[in-house]
Amino acid sequence: MDAFYASVEQRDNLALRGRPVAVGGSRQRGVVAAASYEARRHGVRSAMPSVTARRKCPDLVFVPPRFEVYRAVSAQIHAIFARYTTLIQPLSLDEAYLDVTEPLIEHPSATAIAQEIRSAIRAETGLTASAGVSYNKFLAKLASDYRKPDGLYVITPRMGPRFVETLPVERFHGIGPATAQRMHALGIRTGLDLRGWEMDRLACHFGRAAVFYHGIARGLDGRPVEPDRKRKSIGAERTLEQDIHHWHQAQAVLEMLVDQVWEACSKRGLGGRTVRVKIRYADFRHTGRARSVLVPVPSRAALREMAVSLMRPFFPPDMGVRLLGLTVSNLDNADMRASGTQFTLELDAS
Asked: Where is the active site (predicted)?
């Protein structure tokens, strides 16, 4: 989807159309969750601090996020996908891989299916989507970004290796900023540079990821679309309006995080066996602690007790705290919580 959250807000509020819009908090410690294309032209990007975004675009309009609305629209879009294939792998509310090798409805090509899906999304939601069509996930993802917004791009098997050659490695989906920086230090700046490295040499610097990097430099990616991929964790974070120093301040935020995480777990019918807390300090250093149990955490009260026991030793801190987070992982079906098994704590600190 094109600037999904911001586009939904512009669709639902005529006064926002054509204006630079940021979804997120507008205060000192706020962060941009999404930016309209009008805002992006001024350099506003998601995850940017709100004060920076306001400096880049003084006319920026901030609107609070409405995640229930975004989830409802996402469900509409996924219902459209489901008309064409059962092989759908969501990446987020606004993005997914579809395998249409054997579509549910006969079509002349994957390109025709992509065009029809885009038309249906526009007709039924009033929003625009961009699509990438190719013979593997890596290239389809690259293609989906190539003609945004409201675009469609196809990378054929003949085009694949050549398309990758001139692309900067930081544009590769699966190579993050830190890895790109390491590659730059080794003289690897483009797909062609990466292709020049043999597997053994790549493995010395990048370990198991070398197999993936070796393949994508040649336009190859054997990963399947995984419609039943299990969720690995459920979490929530809160960037604070002002640095905090006292336990009673942290406790109030932690209560909110416990409520959010427990509600999200309950909605999905999941329970977790590992609880982790995260702290980011005023200088952006971060730390955390985790604890695992033998069965999924059985109740909101138990989650709160574990979260408090993990967070409490960090207070009082040596400097102000700007962010707190809580995550539950090692997820299982919630029915396991009913086992009544006594759980034993095993500390995993970091």
From this structure: 95
309-312: which pairs have CB atoms within 8 A and are 24 or more residues apart?
Answer: 310/275, 310/276, 310/277, 311/250, 311/254, 311/277, 311/279, 312/247
Catalytic residue among 95, 116, 237, 305: 95
Predicted confidence at residue 334, as pLDDT, reads 56
- Model confidence pLDDT, tens digit, residues 88-141: 999 888 999 999 999 999 899 999 999 999 999 999 999 999 999 999 999 999
Instruction: Tell me, yes or no, if 165 is annotated catalytic.
Output: no
How does strand 286-292 pair with strand 21-24?
unpaired
In the β-sheet with 32-35, what is the strand arrangement from edge to edge? 32-35, 21-24, 61-63
Q: pLDDT tens-digit profile of 203-250?
A: 999 999 999 999 999 999 999 999 977 778 899 888 887 889 999 999
- According to DSSP, residue 230 is labeled P
Domain segments of the chain: what residues? 4-65, 160-216, 233-349
Strand segments (E) across the chain = 21-24, 32-35, 61-63, 88-92, 95-98, 131-133, 152-154, 233-244, 270-281, 286-292, 321-333, 346-349
State the residue for tokens 């300090």: 281
Contact 323/237 with Cβ under 8 angstroms? yes
Given the structure tokens 């890895």, which residue do they identify?
179
The two three-digit tokens of residue 129, written as one number: 């989507």
* β-pair type (131-133, 32-35): unpaired
CATH number for the 160-216 domain, one of 1.20.1560.10, 1.10.287.3510, 1.10.150.20, 3.40.50.720? 1.10.150.20
- On whether the 233-349 domain is CATH 3.30.1490.100, my answer is yes
Residue 148 to residue 263: CA distance in whole angstroms: 35
94 annotated as a binding-site residue: yes
Q: Say which CATH topology domain 4-65 has.
A: MutS, DNA mismatch repair protein, domain I (3.40.1170)
d(CA 132, CA 144): 4
Supply the pLDDT for residue 170: 92
The reported pTM is 0.73
